[in-house]
Amino acid sequence: MQTIENSLLQVSVDENGAQLAHVISKQGDFDYFDNEEKQEKAVAVFKAADNDENLALTLPWTVVDKGDARVSLTLIDTANSYKKFPYHFEIMLTYSIEANQMKIAFHLKNNSNKEMPFSLDYNLPLSSNVAEESVNRIVLEDADKKVILESADFKISSAQDEISCAINQATLAPETSQDVELNFVFE
């Protein structure tokens, strides 16, 4: 488990799947992902456009950079993953915090000489009531906490007990990279 923190937030990331395990308010002394019944994790989902296997959970992540308020993990294709998803790729996922804000940044890189189709999702447990929802923004609110989630890159929606941030049926040109991010404000 990797932990980053500042004076307002403490964030824990599980290297297994680069999953966001905790976002704790130091002032309110509560975990934004704790729904009293169970502690859930936010999960990255990276898969081929026509495949259901989540490569972000089946391949190993490696911590490549760590500071007080940021941690970066990298996922790289393997010979075994290439058999199922015939592309060479890298994903760097960076969690960073500043004041009461957290940014989750993905750097996707296609190292193949052909176009790479993919889907990228980031699924979060829904532990508060949805107060406001639009295509690229969602506001969660309870009596004692509020979370604003925004992205210019992901389509954001809520369903039952989770928030889905999705980039579906996308492609990445050969030998290119793309940066996408999610931004959170915790109040």
TrEMBL record:
> Where does the record locate the signal sequence feature?
none
**Gene Ontology biological process terms, A to Z:** carbohydrate metabolic process
> What Gene Ontology terms describe what this protein does at the molecular function level?
carbohydrate binding; isomerase activity
Taxonomic superkingdom: Bacteria
What InterPro entries would the database entry show?
Aldose_1/G6P_1-epimerase, Gal_mutarotase_sf_dom, GH-type_carb-bd
Protein's recorded name: Aldose 1-epimerase
